[in-house]
Amino acid sequence: MKFQKHILILVFALTAAFGFSQNQTSDEIKFEAKVSKKKLGVNERLRVDFEMNKDGDNFNPPSFDNFMVVGGPSQSISNQWINGVRSFSKTYSYFLAPKERGNFKIGQATIEIDGETYKTLPIDISVTAAVEIPKDPNDPDYIVQQNIHLVAEVSKTNPYLNEAITVVYKLYVSQNTGVSNWRELDVPRYNDFWSQNIDMKGVKIENGTYNGEDYRFVVLRKTVLYPQKTGKLEIEPLTLDITVDVPTNRRDIFGGRLMQSVHRTVAAGSRTINVKPLPESGKPLDFTGAVGEFDFKVTTSKQTLKATEALEANVEVSGNGNLKLFKLPKLSLPSALEVYEPEHQESISVNLNGMSGKSSDSYTIVPSYQGKYPIPSISFSYFDLKTERYKTITSNEIVINVDEGPINTANTVANSNTPKQQIITSGNQFASFKTKTDFVSIKQSIFFKTKLFWTLLLMPFLAIPIAIFIRQKQEARQSDVVGNRIRKGNKLARKYLKEAKNTLGNKEQFYNALERALHNYLKAKLNIETSEFSKEKIQELLQNKSAEQNTISQFLELLKNCEMARYSPFSNVEMKQDYDKASNVISMIDRQIK
Asked: Is residue 460 domain-resident?
């Protein structure tokens, strides 16, 4: 009996130990690589799965040397509970095509799980000569391989630097193959290219041929590229996940074979572009990278204007080429012209032929003085793809004629025939430089109880009564309605008298300004409106204000001259006399009226 008891205890102990070891094993982290086959023909495909039993981060696949990735990576996750035990699996899958025959290795992949890095073991693969692949018409891989083709059509594989090329991606499907949907898995990144996709409105199914056979096709993408480097550049492939309708062994009630939708991956093979550098022979010094066929012009909004008026100078390049990828030449203008920063504008469209349109810089120019100001000619150089030579277009010189405004007497133009004078130095041209140094003590003084200290201390107390006095004066001035009107009238009179002085020599402008000055002065002094303006009314009001008759007569005579100036000629001397007379009359009326 005791012997049987010992046997039972031993069995329970072994069972518990076995269960404990199983739990330990189930908790062990695994990360391993699996392949669909280790020996295959050069025309076959290889599937590689990297499988883990716990989720991780920073997965890094091997480089897959001597293989071309035709699909993947695709990711699948399995999470199951069986008898209360959780089973987890995560897999990254790749589909490879060997590049040549030979013995190769699938390198190690790495991943981080719970802060530790795990690696797979390398796998040896043997690639033999091509083998005969069974042609099962119901095999999804065979259907995709034989009847579906994703093609990247490149317009030119040997372009110049900055020459436009186009890439059109087409999906060809044979007549008897069903594709119900597709989705982009990997979009190409055009490194070392300036690129722009062309908008496509919907997808249109068209008929065409592929390898001499009839196919249907759709255009998936159109992209314009401008290479920015020379040499061999790679265009990455576009990868699609397509849904293919595959026949099954089941049939419907009428005997027709039922179809099944399966997902397969197709890719447009990468393309290599060999970019030629632009020739160095004949390259102009001002060449900034423009490639194409262009026109160039410099125009101005006006060529004759007055001082302080503004004009627009426009530098424009138009045509077909890399319009967004070069800088426009800058205008070189005389220093006497005030020039603002140019405003850049573009009107460029992109189609399968590349960029077309125009690019321009608009300069705002304001002359300050009278004179003739030339805008020198400037040149624009570009590389013509048709002739494969550089071309230079030079604009015409434009002369800006400023016919009205102040004269700049400070600027003098040197005569080219005047001989240069020899500069004679007096020997003391460096007299302004000090040769002796006066040292000043930097000993710190005590600021407390100095004159500056007491001044700063008392200044706020002195500022308060001064501020109150200024405020009272401002309030008194603002409440003086009559005085404010008089001051406003005097200000306007001085303003118009100043304007009249600036227009001496121009009869019409001078007398218009003089008449406005006299009118505004009287409106403020006599408090009358324009509708009451008559010589009799003016004379009556001035007399009531105790103005002298001689002063009144002079004022009325000035108004008469302003009226007569519209119909009679006046000399510059007479205009100067009337200006002086107006100044004197306004001063006398200010002193005489009460």
From this structure: no
Q: Judge whether 347 and 357 are in contact, CB under 8 Å.
A: yes
44-53 burial code (b ≥16 CB/10 A, e <16) = bbbebbbbbb
Q: Establish if 537 belongs to a structural domain.
A: yes
Is residue 17 a part of any domain in this protein? Answer: no
Token readout for 419 is 């001989």
DSSP annotation of 584 reads H
CA-based end-to-end distance of the chain = 148
User: Are both 209 and 229 inside the same structural domain?
Assistant: yes
How do 57-60 and 67-82 pair as beta strands? unpaired
Q: Are residues 177 and 120 in the same domain?
A: no
Predicted confidence (pLDDT) per residue in 393-420, tens digit: 999 999 999 988 788 765 544 333 334 3
99 has pLDDT over 80: yes
- Domain assignment of residue 256, given as a range: 140-275
What are the φ and ψ backbone dihedral angles of 440, each rounded to 5 degrees? -115, 135
The HSE-up count of residue 131 (CA atoms within 13 Å, CB side) is: 11
Where are the extended beta strands (E) located within 268-397? 271-275, 291-300, 304-306, 311-321, 337-339, 343-351, 354-367, 371-375, 379-384, 389-394
Which of 55, 61, 141 is CA-nearest to residue 94?
61
Could you tell me the CATH number of the domain that includes residue 575?
Answer: 1.20.120
Q: Which of 323, 314, 410, 306 is nearest to 363 (CA)?
A: 314
* Structure tokens given for 516: 């406005």
Q: Widest CA span of the chain, in angstroms? A: 158
Q: Where are the alpha helices (DSSP H) in 420-480?
A: 451-479
Tokens of 548: 């002298």
In what helix (H) or strand (E) does residue 104 lie, and over which residues does it extend? strand 102-106
- 246 & 330 share domain: no
* CATH number of the domain that residue 308 is part of: 2.60.40
Q: Which two tokens stand for residue 478?
A: 């603002």
The number of domains in the chain is 4
Please give the model's pTM, rounded to 2 decimal places: 0.47
